[in-house]
Amino acid sequence: MVPVTGKPLLEVRNLQKSYGDYKALTGLSLELQEGEIISVLGPSGCGKSTLLHLVAGLSRPDGGEILLHGQTIATAAKMLPPEKRGINMVFQDYALWPHLNVFENVAYGLKEKRMPAQQMKDKVAGALALLQLEGFERRLPPQLSGGQQQRVAIARALVTEPRLMLLDEPLSNLDMRLRVEMRTEMSVLFRRLRMSVFHVTHDPEEAFAMADRLLLMRSGAIDQFDTPFACYHKPASRQAASLLGAINVLKGQFAGTAEDPAIACSAGRISGILCEPGGRLQVNGPAELRFRPEALALLQENSDIAGERDRKTNILEARVVHCVFEGTRWRTLAETARGERLYLFSEDYVETDKDIRMVLPSHAAYLYGL
Ligand code: ADP
């Protein structure tokens, strides 16, 4: 849920940043509401860290403006120093002081603020309890696991009660099991504390686990800024679709109308949905259909195709190339007659070289102009 409080906590207006001739941010605007968690997701090099560092005050914009609670904190001409912004950041590599123990690391920001000793002790104890780190006070960072170090980094960022928390790929140094655990824990914790969070990741699952809204970035600009549900079900570009798992691609020509969009491709006329705002699709113009492996359902050999077609679905034909058990399901790679590769999931093993038919519902087939 996106809380509606009127004034946004963070406003970014037409933000620009270049490194030499290279435009890392090309005029980006967004708003983050109080208590909201925004996950910034995009491929490596799209400008995520650049955006985060500008908000943190670690670098200066070339143009545009950043405001916090309506107050300008950064323009090309004016910079509020990072420590005056009320923003804390959790880094990918934890950035703990290796020579300070857990208590001292977490207390660091409070000490800087000259907080009285007893109050500081209570605050640190509270933060350590929140992150389940009681009993670790005297340990040095090298004596902790990666997961524990990351908890300390989060406790340290929380304890000064920042107005905004920035997370820069916070879980990418952890192993898979721990990543899954921690992303749920963080999501629960930040919501419980009503923290405003700006979170950067290249991992779609992490973004989905955390975000109220997703900011999909591409080449220094916003591709889509919407709820995870909306981004998932209507990716605004073929790059967004690909990022969010729609890895199956059929190329062809647009063969429909706005009311009945479809593509003419090697598999025949396949109907889909229009996702691109201000769509570039033109009748007979080059087009691409994208869909997820999960969207495809294997048809049993004796099933009634006519019935399936009635239900506004498409039928695709292909030959199985490979089928592998993934743990909970089988992942099958199949090839159309024209050699286009399609992935699908099935409950059972499917034999190599077998000809199969698959159902693809129109609502899960995304159409884009090329
Ligand atoms: P992301 O976090 O999405 O991977 P970055 O914001 O780190 O992307 O980088 C965006 C682009 O800017 C990349 O092409 C990167 O190589 C370039 N870049 C980032 N920092 C610098 C820098 N200090 N000097 C030159 N180029 C940089």
From TrEMBL:
Keyword Plastid carried by entry: no
InterPro entries: AAA+_ATPase (IPR003593), ABC_SmlMolc_Importer (IPR050093), ABC_transporter-like_ATP-bd (IPR003439), ABC_transporter-like_CS (IPR017871), ABC_transpr_FbpC (IPR015853), Mo/tungstate-bd_C_term_dom (IPR008995), P-loop_NTPase (IPR027417)
Molecular-function GO terms, alphabetical: ATP binding
Recorded coiled-coil stretches: none
Keyword line: ATP-binding, Cell membrane, Ion transport, Iron, Iron transport, Membrane, Nucleotide-binding, Transport
Domain ABC transporter per the UniProt entry, residue ranges: 10-244
Protein name from the UniProt record: ABC transporter ATP-binding protein
Source species: Paenibacillus tritici
Phylogenetic classification of the source organism: Bacteria, Bacillati, Bacillota, Bacilli, Bacillales
